[in-house]
Amino acid sequence: MGTLKKHLAIYWGICITVLFLLFGYAETDFLDTLERKFYDIRMSLRSNPESESKIILVDIDDESIEKIGRWPWPRSHIAKCLEIINQASPKVIGLNIIYSEPEDTRALKEIGHLADYLTQIDPEQTDKKISKALQAINDAYSRLDNDKKLSQALEQAENVVLPVFFKESEISKELKDDNIRAILEHQSVRKIENSGNLTCPRGNEILTPIPDFFKISKGIGHVNLDYDIDGKVRWEQLLYEYQGFYIPSFTLRLAAISLDVPSDEIHMSPDASIVLNLLEIPTDSSARLLVSFKGPQNSFKRYPFYDVENNKIPPNVFRDKIVLITPSAAGVLNPISTPAAQVMSVGEFSANVIWAMLNRKFVLRPSWDNSARFLMIIMLGLLITFILPRLKAVIAAMSFVLFLVFLITTSTYLFVSRDLWIQITYPLLQWIVGYIGVVTIKYFVTETRKEKIETESAETNRMLGLSFQNQGQLDLAFDKFRKVPVDNEMKRILYNLGLDYERKRQLNKAASVYEYIEEYDSDYKDVSTRKRKLVQASETMVFGDGFLTGGTGGNDFLTSSSDTRPTLGRYEVIKQLGKGAMGVVYLGQDPRINRTTAIKTFRFSDDFDPKEAEAMKQKFFREAESAGTLSHPNIVTIYDAGDEHDLAYIAMEFLEGEDLQKYTKKKTLLPMRRVLDYVADIAEALDYAHEKGIIHRDIKPANIMLLKNGIVKITDFGIARITASSQTQTGVVKGTPHYMSPEQISGEKVDGRSDIFSLGAMLFQLLTGDVPFHGDSPAALLHQIMNVPHPDPRKLNPKLLKPHVEIINKAMEKNREKRYQRASQMAAHLRTLGKKIDTLIMQKKKTG
Length: 848
Known about the structure:
It is built from 28 helices and 27 strands. It is an alpha+beta fold. The longest helix is centred in the middle third of the chain and has 46 residues, at 425-470. The radius of gyration is 43 Å and the shape is elongated.
């Protein structure tokens, strides 16, 4: 067991290598399907839709069926189309329709019976009227005999290839028609030089055109498709065996005729390739060709059948071309899925096969592919087993990425440029799984060592904490104690630390220590009772920690033991609410009008010299001056300002609600529709402030309050400035890094467009649950904001609409000249988007 733990990474590497060797030997369907998906991606890189082609499709499409009539059509339409195409002297015509039965025309049969009856009448008794009737009947019979018309068109063209189809039924049906046997023998590939190694499929039953068509066609070819394990068609089966005959595919026959190669000159060489004179077509041992696609659907010239039949297409377009008459209409011939297109007509696929053969665009799967795959698995197994575990994390990660890129790019290069399909899915997945396993093992080993080190350091921190406590440095002692696991002995030490804080009249800190103990054991001694009493006592304190009776800079009228509430100016202080950007915030009440207020304070300590204290006081009142000029329903209202006992204060509107920081996580995001209204309200409020010459400079979710009545308000103009005054300076960076504009970071003079950028960043976070920029360090974060475009928010929240993204992009332009120039413009866009969304919702409700 000890050896296993010590060399766990090595055992992992061996196991993963053996596992993938077994997978490769067994050829797992799942992994083979992944390989084919990768094959399809690489195939798209080979396509060349703009390349020249001598192949033209005459498409029996939905439009033609709609104009001519429901399928199947009378065969006279096909005959007429053949006659028109044949006038242009095409190289060869492929008619991809199997007419295996004569056309069912009951009227024609009845006319034939009537003609037979009149013919049997004694000529001496036949008058001229009966003779004319008989002639008319015979003429009608000829006009209605569509099979004869099509037969005559085929015979006249002399270059039409017809399809056959093989069925792989369990019972083989013997071919009894000697004429058909003779035709099949003539049309088959007779020169098979490696018949012993050839494993092409064998048909037990054949579906052929009617004899009248079959015997006068230029050639025949099978139209069987070879579906892969994932349902796509990537191969063309060039040969099919039927009762000893090797029948070429429809596409091979067309290619051979276009090259003037007769059937008896088509042969299969010993190296598994089909030879058409100078053209050698590589195949596998089953006579299959990997199809290289010219491009997706509609890569070949195609003309609707209706337009061709009605002479709307110039005949010369078919001259010396390979013309395929093929259905694509729904319900006539089902489309197939190929690497080039999810939906492709059979005729388009055949055109790609012929194009690949005539242009020598072949993809080869070399005979050594399997050997190369097993060799790669073994080589990567050695790296996973013996090299990766010894590398440092960064170097291992870089090595992993480099090998990953090498495998993908090399196989892609060989496929696209060298026509070689080398399968890499097995080694690729082995490399990924192996690396993840090694990293996981190293992580757990590191964690185990870390726990050991932490256990050893806990005693050191405990001793240091006790030393600091004995020296009276209680904050440092508490910091060290929090790094020690809390057991009964530690609870006792922490309890004594809380008592020491109480002795020094630092009641809030004492309460924090008791609360820390309570997290682990709420029943320990009287920590809950002590914490509750200390919190109640601290609620009557105005000046914070240490500013009590007897404390440094204390005032006797603000004692923790007083039964009356302390006051600032005329405002009664009820309790502390929190700490703002410049000081402590308390809940207060104006006794004159019985109005609840929030009181923001800042104490000018003795630590500052008189000049610094005066400068800070001026800064504080500039905040009150700038914010006090604003009167807007979405901006917190300032009521009063003053100073007392070295404590400056601002009385402002008390807001019952919570800031938007709560709604910046993915699990707690607000509905997108509400976010649009809230941000529009904020934008309008900012536009109002900007009109007054006031820039907020710190727009972020924590500075936006969402009240219980659904109204949002901007708070904390603590770093705002009156931009029109001489007090505005450049070179000073103010704001929260994740939301800062590039001009704030660079120290440029900012204007309202800086707030618009911050608002865009906040909108990004409220819609996606993540900030637009990240960095491992403040410098890296600022670099991201300055130089790197923000990510597409739809990658984080796919439900976002395009207008959402456009508004965010416009607001967060690096160049402020390209940004919204006024916040009201952004608000207008948000309102418009909201109305459009409301309209869509109403329409869905009506239709639903």
